[in-house]
Amino acid sequence: MIRERILVIGASGQIGVELTLALRKIYGNNNVVASDLREENELLKGTGPYVSIDVMNKEMLHVQVIRQNITQIYLLAAILSATGEKNPNLAWHLNMQGLLNVLDIAREEKIYKVYWPSSIAVFGPTSPKQNCPQQTIIEPTTVYGISKYAGEFWCNYYHQRYQVDVRSLRYPGLISYKSAPGGGTTDYAVEIYHEALEEKKYTCFLREDTYLPMMYMPDAIRATIELMEAPAVQISTRTSYNVSAMSFSPKEISAAIKNYIPEFTINYEPDYRQSIADSWPQSIDDAVARNDWGWKPEYDLNKMTKDMLENLRQQ
Ligand code: NAD
Ligand code: SER
């Protein structure tokens, strides 16, 4: 049996912190090396090894992979949709070159498995709005979506040509209470819980009727680990899998919060992120993931809202 040594790149981000902690529970604290551009992370302190790495520095990354005897890499470092529209060149450069650096090192060092997330942002205005299928018209209009779609094909290419076992999910907007989100269009659905508890009111940067696909972080972490642990024969999609959990609008999430905080109020001041949200599907069909490796979400809007508010109150 292989003794896994896992490198998480972008471990200090919204997903990275929770994924690192979950992987450490499974594989042992010292076998999961957290890494990020950031020097340290309060939430990861004392839980296992942490190294400062720039994924753009391929040589430094390569040395760490060899030195730490890495067998699996989870690449989470990226620039998300809203920040990407402010700096398209930087987003393209990091999202593409970071992935190519990891795929190249994986090929050279015979890394056993690689995980890299894509996003619902691959879809564009010409994709179906409801139950958007795995394979459909895909014409993204954000630099983030373009980089994710190109990245999906690089993953497929490295798998076909070099047999790198790279796996991927198209995450919806992710909602969590541990680590703050990093510049996405779906971030409102995290901010709203914080503001509801602290201020009892929230100004939303999307219109009240903007439906988007969303997922609670425990489901996203479980989906990631289930995909990575599935036998290779069950993985039919080597670009990236649609995964889905729920779909709601700002008006609906505010109604769910009002069940717990009746005095909560919301108003709407849409900004540049509205057109990004309008370009994405409202809901996703994840039948292929369900059939291939048994994906099934656990959280809906109400179950998530109860859990988010309880955990944020405790913090
Ligand atoms: P995040 O912005 O919260 O975290 C990214 C981390 O990468 C940060 O800690 C940052 O310091 C680090 N980083 C940036 N540049 C780096 C570099 N050059 N070298 C090393 N580290 C660097 O992002 P996230 O929300 O945790 O997203 C992780 C991945 O999941 C990304 O690929 C993102 O596109 C994807 N994704 C996220 C969501 C979501 O809702 N959060 C949805 C779909 C897809
Ligand atoms: N949550 C992400 C974003 O809004 C979707 O990939 O950018």
Do you know the CATH architecture of the largest domain? 3-Layer(aba) Sandwich
- CATH fold call of the largest domain: Rossmann fold
- Helix and strand succession? EHEEHEHHEEHEEEHEEHEEHEHHH
The top-level CATH class of the largest domain is Alpha Beta
Rounded mean pLDDT score:
97
The total tally of domains equals 2
Structural class: alpha/beta
Query: Span between N and C termini?
Result: 40 Å
What coarse outline follows from CA principal-axis ratios?
globular
Major sheet: 6 strands, parallel
Structural write-up:
By secondary structure, this protein is α/β, with parallel strands linked by helices. Strand 1, helix 1 (14-27) and strand 2 (32-36) form a beta-alpha-beta unit. The mean pLDDT is 97. The chain has a six-stranded parallel beta sheet with strand order 3-2-1-4-5-7, sandwiched between helices. A three-stranded parallel beta sheet has the order 6-8-12. A three-stranded mixed beta sheet has the order 9-11-13. 42% of the residues lie in helices and 15% in strands. The chain folds into two domains: 6-171, Rossmann fold (3-Layer(aba) Sandwich); 174-214 and 244-314, UDP-galactose 4-epimerase, domain 1 (Alpha-Beta Complex), CATH 3.90.25.10. The chain is built from eleven helices and 14 strands. Nicotinamide-adenine-dinucleotide (NAD) is lined by residues 9-10, 12-16, 36-38, 53-56, 76-78, 80, 94, 117, 119, 171, 173-174, 181-182, 184, 186. It comes from Niastella soli. Residues 6-242 form the NAD-dependent epimerase/dehydratase domain. This is NAD-dependent epimerase/dehydratase family protein.
